[in-house]
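Two entries, shown back to back:
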Amino acid sequence: MNELVRAESERRADDEREGSRTDDPRLGADSGASSGAPGSGLPQGLFAGLRAAIGRSRGVERVYRILVGATGAGVALLGLLLVPLPGPGWLVVFAGLAILGSEFAWARPLAAGLRRALERFWAWWRARREARRRDRMR
């Protein structure tokens, strides 16, 4: 753990000397002060340190982004296939979008818009079902 903190401090010092940005928007406002994901059980700063290590190499970062994209897209597509079946189809779709949103900013508003559309659909569905029940009782 101390080695990760020391490596991150050295990287930040190198970045400041080179004049490059030290803040990574994917990690929050300050990548050095970030902690592990809430409830993940990871030591504080471990995820940020690993993500910073991945970001040091363009090739490794490209492979990482491809893997995150493929995993998120695969999970989201699997969820779409499960939607007509009984079970957690939409939950799996949102899990896939959350995976994509961890690395790609465009996935976050997509997930929010999809959630709003799904909420509108279920409100319409409940109103329609209630209206049909009332019609049958007459």
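entry 2 starts here
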Amino acid sequence: MSARCIASIGQYGGRGATNSNHTFRIGFIVALRDHVGRPVDPNSCELVRERLAPSASTASFYTAPPRVSSELQVSAGRDARQAYTSSSHSATYVDKLREPHVRRYTVLPSKMRIGRHNWMWLCSMLTAVVLLAVFAYAPLPSISDVQRNSTAKHAADVSAGIAGLPKFGSASQETPASTYAFATFLAGDSMHPDNAANLHDDYFVATRLLGYQIMHAPETRSKSAPFIVLATKAVHSDKIERLRRDGAIVIVVETVEKPSWLQGAGASNWQEVFDKLRLWELTQFDLICFFDADTLLNRPLDGIFGDPAVALQYTLNHTDGNGQNEGSLPSTYVFAGQPEMNVVHNYPPSDAAGDYPNIDYLNAGFFVTRPSLELQKFYFDIMQTPERFQSHLPEQNLLNYAHRPQADGGSMPWRALSTEWNMHYPTSHDLKGGVASLHEKWWAPVDRSLSPYMESWRWRMEGFYETMSEHE
């Protein structure tokens, strides 16, 4: 092909023409690409020139082309279309040639073309998606499996060492190495009596959660004190077995017989709570910290056994102020707790700030005591005197009467623990303030902002014990 033809065609296909109008450059380029060196029709160069001639709407962008010698041979038509579509040209779309005499190809504007940088961007995005998918479905590193298995084995070993302890209905257990213990109370599921084996009962889950925190969780576990669960006979055997596999010492207690005056309609929902009094039979311990099952720890509670309020106290009088049918008192005792809180309160709370409805009224959901059969008998004697205390919240009102202030005639007044150890009706402000434990239902806290914190502990517990079960 001669330079004259190429030069002639170049006047139609220059850079400026391509940028200004997208319809004229392609035909002659592909014609040249496809037919260089081929013997073709001697008029083909004229045909190419005709194809590249500007239309009336675009004539102003072009100068008239010089004549091209007929000796130059270039082919056009269907072969030109095939050559273009198989080439590496940057155009993205070309009109289909329906007839051999179609005059031009059409090219989309440059903004709609997929250039090299766009292809690179698309490939990068696809690569990122593939890598994310691989990461999401790939197994955890082996080191995580090793750590998980090690933790589970330790938990299973602990459980195996404790699960074999015998159950008993009174204090008939061998004395553990520690002289201190933590204890809670679990009654039957009164909300679902037809499904007593339900392992998702809220109070049962709360008991397991408390055990997990005291026995296993690094942030809250005790250094040496065991975790004891006083279970009534109404608790299903599956639940008892599960708690024992968790590592708790489960004591199935004998039922405390209630006098007739405590069996009325007003006390019908609280019949089992007096079984808590079996706690004072565990005389193998010097001190026991008792809390209701709906308690969640924020940090270890071992320090409570050094609180000044748990020091041994001497009974003020050996006969009670009221005297009738209340029996004799022990010469010494330990009973320390915290007053009932207002729902809205400060932290730390104080009587001066109005944080207590009655600073002399004990909340029996958290206290420290010294087990004593003499003290237990004193409680039983009080129960036999009709109307000695209110039947609503019966065990709490019994303890409040037995350990009432000296000013009210009491011989064994309860002493107040530091406010740092526990908070009833806790708030997020109490939690941030550093209180050691929260007396609140994990499934329905009054302060709903605590729900994420409390539920996260629940699922940590579930995961830990599930791992334990896999390695039993």
